[in-house]
Amino acid sequence: MRIVKTAGERKNEILDAADELFGQKGFEGTSTNDILEKVGIARGTLYHHFKSKEEIMDALIERYGARLLSAARDAASDKSVPVVERIIRAVMALNLSGGSREEIMEHIHKPQNALMHRKIQTVVLNGVPPILTDIIREGMEQGLFNTPFPYECMEMVVIYANAVFDDDLVPLTDEERLTRMQAFVFNAERLLGAESGSLMSVMRMFGSGNRDGHE
Description:
This protein is mostly helical. Helix content is about 70%, strand content about 0%. It has two domains: about 50 residues, Orthogonal Bundle (Arc Repressor Mutant, subunit A), CATH 1.10.10.60; about 150 residues, Orthogonal Bundle (Tetracycline Repressor, domain 2). The longest helix is centred in the middle third of the chain and has 28 residues.
């Protein structure tokens, strides 16, 4: 008996196959024929759902991006947690360490998937500042922060963090990473008009403690 699948099921099947193939062979090294063979469908069925391999890539990026932003929103929305800790948790949710999320990041950081990596960065740069801005405004109401530019501050923070703490873009030794993290937190406090040392708990999240008097 022939199994009839819904459009959503078939679409996800194609995406799952493409995801696996991109991980093995890279985007450029994977052909539409590879995807057809993996899923076991006709070319017309593939093109009914996706007009090109680029469209498949974009759909995968959308799926990854939705997971990233959902994790950040979940962390940001837990009002039982203090504001500063929620900021840290939201940022750490984007770090993708542990479980299936670590596999996603490994996949994205493969050299053959540079295009996927760049597109994910675009999703993060567009999607994360609004999430963090909401927390900053809450902190302003509580007197923790004082800035006329909450969104722009978060945009600067996300752009810097995304560039400097991405091992693919800026290879760092442990010592260099620690120094940049200290500088990052030190200057983030000033961007936000926060009390000096109030964000240094970030350092403990990275297992580094306080050092060198940046308080």
